[in-house]
Each structure stands twice: as C-alpha cells, then as structure tokens.
Amino acid sequence: MACGSGRVTIRLVDDEAEPGAQGPQLFRGQDYEAIRAACLESEVLFRDPHFPAGPDALGYDLLGPDSEKAKGVEWKRPHEFCAEPRFICEDMSRTDVCQGRLGNCWLLAAAASLTLYPRLLCRVVPPGQGFGDGYAGVFHFQLWQFGRWVDVVVDDRLPVREGKLMFVRSDQRNEFWAPLLEKAYAKIHGSYEVMRGGHMNEAFVDFTGGVGEVLYLRHGAPGLFSLLRRALAKESLVGATALSDRGEYRTEDGLVRGHAYSVTGTHKLFLGFTKVRLLRLRNPWGRVEWTGAWSDSCPRWDSLPAEWRDALLVQKEDGEFWMELQDFLHHFNTVQICSLSPEGLGPQPRGGGGLGRQHPSRARWVRGLQLRGGASPSAGGGPRGTLGRPPGSWEQTTIKEGPWGCEAAAPSCARRDVSRRCRLRPGHYLVVPSAAQAGVEADFPLRIFSERHHTALEVDDVISADLEALMVPYVPMAPELELLFQELAGEDEELSAPQLQTLLSIALEPARAHSGVPREIGVRTCEQLLQCFGHGHSLALHHFQQLWGHLLVWQATFDKFDEDASGTMNSYELRLALNAAGFHLNNQLTQALTSRYRDSRLRVDFERFVSCVAQLTCVFRHCSQHLDGGEGVVCLTRRKWLEVATFS
Length: 648
Fold this sequence. Notes:
Elements: E1 7-13, E2 25-26, H1 32-42, H2 55-58, E3 73-76, H3 78-81, H4 105-114, H5 118-124, E4 138-145, E5 148-155, E6 158-161, E7 164-165, H6 177-189, H7 200-208, E8 211-216, H8 224-233, E9 237-242, E10 249-250, E11 256-257, E12 260-271, E13 274-282, H9 306-312, E14 320-324, H10 325-331, E15 332-339, H11 342-345, E16 357-365, E17 396-401, E18 417-422, E19 442-450, E20 463-466, H12 467-470, H13 479-489, E21 494-495, H14 497-507, H15 509-515, H16 523-533, E22 539-540, H17 541-561, E23 568-569, H18 571-580, E24 583-584, H19 587-597, E25 604-605, H20 606-624, E26 632-637, H21 638-646
Parallel strand pairs: 1-26, 2-5, 17-18, 17-19
Antiparallel strand pairs: 1-20, 3-6, 4-5, 6-7, 8-15, 9-12, 9-15, 10-11, 12-13, 13-14, 16-19, 20-24, 21-22, 23-25
C-alpha cells in the first residue's frame, strides 16, 4: 500500500506465530497438565476454584439455591458413589449420552451425533484420561468458542441426588466422560441451568468449529434424503426437532414433541418395486422410541431378508429407532446440519467434507459508535429487528456459495449463530453483521466460505497521520505563562503532574470563559502528557512549549466539531475531529478509542479528546522514528498495533 506525500502510514499484518499459538486457548488460564502434575506431587485431588462445586454452579432460577430441585444435591466424585468408575468403557458410542433432569436435549443430541465420528470426538474429549494411574481428580475438554478452540479444565465432583447423577449419564452406569463433558460445557457458560433450553446447532458448532445451518421442512423438502446421506458421509453432524405448539410433551406414537433428536444414519431399500427411504434417529433420553412404521417392533421388518434385518434392526430400548422419510417430514419441522470447517479440524475428511476456502475476521459492536459517513450506529438494531440474541451474547453471520438457494438476504432468526448459504453471481457484495437490539455490545466473528477463490476486505480506511500533525506548531508563549511555569516549577525547573494540572487550569481559563463549559485537565491526563511530551515524570520548559502549541491546535479543533457547543462530541464527531487533526484511523482503532474515551453518556469531553489525540501523536511519532526521512510505511502486527495505540 503506497503512502501519500508527507504522511506516515501503518500497515497491519497478521500476528506473528508464537510458540503454542496454534494450540487451544486455556480457559481461565488453567493448564491441565500443570494442574494434574501439581496435584499428584502434593497428593491431593483437584478442586476447581473457578467453578466451585456448589449452588451457584447449578443455577439461578429453577436450579437456584432455594429451589426445590436443588434440595438434597450432593457433589461427589465418581469413586464416591460408583464401585469401579471408568472414564471410557471400551469405546465411546451414542448410547453413552442419556439425558438426566436438565432440559438440555439439544446439547446431548449433538454429543450423541459427535460419537459417530471418533476423529471429531477425540478433539473434544482428549484421550489419555481416566481414573487409574495418574488420577488426580482433574479432567479437560476442548470446545470451540468465538472462533477458536478453548481447553476447559474441570474437577470430577458431580451433582448427585439420592445416589444418582442428576444430569447426563451413560447407558453404562460406571462411565463418566459424558457427565464430565457436560460439566465443562456448564463451566464455560456459567452454570448447568444455562443449558436448560437451546439450539442443537449451537452445540454442533461448539463441538466442531464448523458452520451450522437450519433447514425448515416445507413443501415436501425435495432432495432432503440425498442431502442427509451426503452430509453424514462427510462427517457432518445432523439433528432434527419435532413439531410442537406447547413445549415438550410425549405423544401416543412414542415421539416427544418440542424435543431434539440426533439423526444418526440413513438407509435405502426396495420392497418389490417400492423404494423405502429410512432415517435412523436417537432420543437423547436413551429411551422412549417411535412406535409407528419401521419401529423396533414393527412387523414390516419381517418382510426383509435376514441379513438386512440383522444389519439394521436393534430391538432394544436405547432411544434409537428407524423412521420412514414421509413420517419424518410429517412429524419434524427442522433439520440442523453442521458442516465441518477446514481450519477448525485440520486435515480434510475423506471425500471432501470441508467447506472450501474461507475468510475469517473478527469485529465488535460498540454502543454509540457510528459507521463511516455517520449513517447508522455500529451496535444498532438489525434488519427487521430480529438478528442476534439478547445483550451479552454474540452473533455469527455466514454467507456461502452453494447449490441450495436463493437470494443473498439477511437471515431472520433470533439465534446465536446465523448462517446463509447462497449461490452468488460474480460481483461485489456487502455483508453487514447486525444485532437484534440497539446498544448491544459484543465481539463477533464473521466467516465467509466459498468453493472458489474470493477476496473479502473490510470497508475501511488506512491508518495514517499527516506529518504536519506530528510537528510542533509554532505558537509564541505569552511572558506571563512562562513566568507562571517558572513559579510552579521552582528550583527543579520542571513540572510534576499536579503542577502541570494547576498551570493548565489557569492557562485554559480564557477558553472556558468563552465557551461557557469546563476545560479542566485532570491529574491522570497530565501524567499521560508527561509520558508523551516530557521525561516521563516531569516536564521541562521547552517540553511544555511543544505541548502548549499542540493544546491550542487541539482546542480549536475540538471547538470546531463541537457543533452544539455542549462541551462534548459523539463518536462520529470524534472521528471527524481526529481526521481534521491529521489522524486517519480504521474502524477497529476507532472502536477501541471510542470505548476507551467515552463517558457513561457515550460522549467525549475536552479532556478525553486531549488524552486521545496526545496518545495518537505519541504513537505516530514513535513509528516515524523508524522511517528514513520520517515518512513512509511502518508494518506492525495487529496485536502490537492495538497495544501501542491504546496503551493496553
């Protein structure tokens, strides 16, 4: 990127690889191996200080400390209520995940689907853990959160009531990988009760790092069976939700309305000239099965050859059953599919199960920050007011090129993850991630996948500063101001931060009288000015002369863009004022500065403006020292740039 004449431009490059940078992030900074080694050395069992076994870990409402469901709960390690606990019995299977007293069928259906693919499951449930040699009461799991893998450590104290696990359990009662995974999921989200209700796709994404999509089964859903076969063959996770107009309830035909099921297999067979398309589903309860056509006890199985019947039919109350496609379409209204992202899982699955080329990026909604042109706020409401989730959650919007649809329109659903699969003609497209409610503040990742090459760039400015803004403006200092400096400085001939504050309060008095609004500079800002223009702890006269020249220019700039003479600026006026002062910033830095310098009313007063522009002057001066002739392009990693630009 070329720089203009008389300008210092900062080019941001990808962060340099650091040791372990490609590994998972440690949740709460807890390192499993280090914790385990320390516990073994001290001969104690791990007790997690970040997720203590107690009432707060259970929940806040129906599972709150005073709730009926929380009475009689004990927190016990597996060996305290099970004779021979095992982390994994032989191998992991979908019958290892049976729902307990928590309404988290959406999570458990996703976990059951995960067991179909050992390669995926080993990423979430790292091998080598157990209750034998080396047991220290600590286990760990890896979950995908906000665009990266996170390693979550838990102790093995589980909620038990009347001698039985309250929540998820295995069909083999001495197997505990599933209850401990559930605890890790509760920890990363704050409590067990947070999992009471959710979307299966959210758990799919958390277990794989893939991209979840929701298919609404309308108009007979042509091509659905072939689509599901291909998805399962490519190691996609698949689930379905039964129709309901009044919550979760059991029907006479063995289905549970308003309930999440795993789709675990497909099979196509012929009875004479009749083609039969079967789907295999599993109830995460581990019981309660479909009793209609092709159920375990259905006489239709008798018409099949013995080898087919033996290969497909398992007559056991394990929650798993077969159902014909037409019955499935009659009883279910949505299908959730999670396709695997290449960067989330490393090597591509056999058969090309990855999603192709992608362009990941991270951004943030900032309350009160207006976009370029001042049109709409960064944290404004979405189209139709339905994108996103309540404040404190985050949103992922994905546009992909593919064979299924339609138009490149904004999805309309209140979910954490929002995806859209599109077939797009060659051209230029604008993606605008948005939250449902105005004022929501959150980080969010945006991922764009395509089968063919594409270039995705943020609509943004370059980061640069005019050299004139970095030079000291020539402003003759009034004799009385110089005399005041000498009186305050005394024999040291340099000002401390409190002395500088006193001097500026007097020197800026005429401007305050003229505008009618305060122009006070606090001690903390004066300390920053000493860092930027002085020795760090004091300010000599020639340093103050430089600072005073800048202050007069900044004061005039502030007055120009404080159009309503309120003594404050909004985020858009701040961006214009910084631009007029010679600083050209990108969206990310503008967001960071807005968050740092605004007050509770989302406004920036004169003192905050001075602090902001002084900081930018200091940063760009530092960068220009690394250039021949003082102008050109400086390359910084994104992380380093935010560190120096925001003093973080």
